[in-house]
Specification:
25% helix, 484 residues, Immunoglobulin-like, 16 strands, Rossmann fold, alpha+beta, 11 helices, five-stranded antiparallel sheet
Length: 484
């Protein structure tokens, strides 16, 4: 069994493997690719809007997709850059929960490197670690797009190679089925014990690309198959591998996400693996993962698949509908801005609404969010009422148990006080966010430069298992050379 068994991650590739940058290709590789529009969050006044609420996001697809663009000698389109997914691509040394709670909440602050006088607040949520000896049995359905658009080497062949990695850690207690869809849909492998690896691998090898893409029919059969083999005390998950180019049956993104949202009520979670270039429907795949109680990773290589499927986070969800609400103290905070998470915004009342869907966190997983905060001008007289506390803000987190219906709340306050430069993991996270602001050519980039990103990151490499942080430095250099 691998280091943490069958726990599915959303992550990167072997460090340093992609330091070389290929010459630019004449045709734009994003010619038929679709990305959801990102309207960056505005700076808000704490006096009038003291609450900031969002759903957590464990997706990492944006980082590996950005890497793909840079490897091909092109800057990514701004809407392909989701800063929260860049941040959450990397592992940080957050302490896991000590008690019975499945999540631990950490919050700290530092000086903002790209905006003099501003502060950077880091919020981290860390799930409990996996116990490899107590992994629950898995009920998995591989939902594989075998339409004609999947025939390229970086699509179906990569998917088959990737899923083979996952099969190697299955046991007799696990069940695997394979649903293949193109013009039609078929059950390529009925639910099969995980230790019958030869039969599972043969079914994967037999998959061939051709025809149109009836993804909605595939979704229907995959969830029906998962429900028929449902493990009440196990992990129940559909793993969808596709370029997202649905063109037969239900094809609109809104209708597809509605279908997935309906199926998610069954208790079956979703993992989306995006592949390919040229016609990647990133916006659709992200929406499917968001609405399907799931996560979205983009596979640009077999190394990425190994990280996604074997090395880190999880197939096993420990907390669902995880929401964060930050209450800023107007006596000490003039204004604030959440960096990224534009697609995860929630209303203030949604925080206490248990019917409101939000993100999931898996065993051993973590979520990082950064706020840029403008402190209250020291020259301004303190408020007569409501200004007595030394707290800068309070972070509240709501979550549900994987099969629960009522949420629980965690709460952590952060005191105001001295502001130092970010160090260690905080420093590296700041570098990644700064890079994202530059890639997006953000109006909020302040004094950010690629040189600043490199200085921050190079002093926060640490032990760097896998070399992912060193690879980040090579991508920063590539983007600096390619930037207009």
């Amino acid at each position: 069994m691998s280091r943490i068994g069958l726990f599915l991650v959303l992550g990167g590739c072997v460090g340093g493997a992609y330091g070389k940058r290929l010459p630019p290709s004449p045709p734009p590789i994003e010619r038929d690719e679709e990305y959801g529009r990102i309207d960056e969050r505005r700076t808000r006044k704490a006096a009038s809007k003291p609450l900031s609420t969002f759903s957590v996001d464990v997706d990492t697809a944006s980082y590996s997709n950005v890497r793909r663009f840079l490897r091909d000698g092109r800057m990514p389109p701004p809407d392909a850059v989701r800063i929260e997914e860049l941040l959450n691509y990397f592992a940080y040394d957050y302490a896991p929960p000590e008690g019975e709670e499945p999540l631990a909440v950490h919050v700290d602050k530092a000086c903002c490197p790209w905006s003099d006088g501003h502060r950077l607040v880091r919020i981290a949520i860390r799930a409990r670690d996996a116990d490899p000896e107590c992994r629950p049995p898995a009920n998995l359905v591989f939902l594989v797009d075998v339409s004609g658009s999947m025939e390229d080497a970086d699509k179906l062949p990569l998917v088959k190679r990737s899923l083979r990695m996952l099969v190697r850690d299955l046991t007799e207690d696990d069940r695997v089925a394979i649903v293949a869809y193109a013009d039609g849909v078929r059950l390529a492998l009925p639910p099969t014990p995980g230790d019958r690896r030869e039969r599972i691998l043969d079914a994967l090898d037999d998959l061939r690309a051709g025809g149109w893409t009836n993804g909605s029919a595939g979704i229907e059969l995959a969830y029906r198959t998962a429900e028929e083999s449902f493990r009440r005390r196990g992990t129940n998950r559909v793993i969808l591998a596709t370029d997202g180019d649905f063109n037969v049956g239900t094809t609109s993104s809104r209708d597809l996400t509605g279908l997935i949202e309906e199926k998610a009520r069954s208790g079956v979670f979703l993992t989306v693996l995006g592949v390919g270039r040229g016609n990647l429907k990133d916006s659709t795949l992200e929406s499917l993962a968001d609405r399907g109680n799931g996560s979205y990773a983009y596979l640009d290589s077999a190394e990425e698949a190994r990280k996604v499927l074997l090395e880190e986070a999880t197939l096993t969800t420990v907390a669902k509908d995880v929401k964060v609400q930050v209450e800023f103290n107007p006596a000490r905070v003039e204004a604030y801005r959440l960096i990224g998470y534009e697609n995860r915004a929630l209303g203030a009342a949604d925080f206490n609404d248990d019917w409101e869907d939000a993100g999931e966190v898996g065993v051993g997983g973590a979520v990082t969010a950064l706020y840029e905060v403008t402190p209250k001008d020291a020259a301004v007289d303190p408020l007569k009422y409501g200004g007595e506390t030394s707290e800068l803000l309070t972070v509240k987190v709501r979550y549900k148990e994987p099969r629960g219906g009522a949420s629980r709340k965690l709460e952590v306050a952060l005191d105001d006080g001295r502001c130092d430069e970010p160090r260690g993991d905080f420093r590296f996270a700041a570098a990644v966010a700064c890079w994202g602001l530059l890639l997006r050519d953000s109006d909020h980039r302040g004094d950010a430069t690629f040189g600043l990103v490199r200085r921050l990151a190079s002093r926060a490499i640490g032990a760097d298992p896998g070399g992912y942080r060193r690879e980040f430095l090579s991508l920063v250099e590539s983007s600096r050379e390619l930037a207009p």
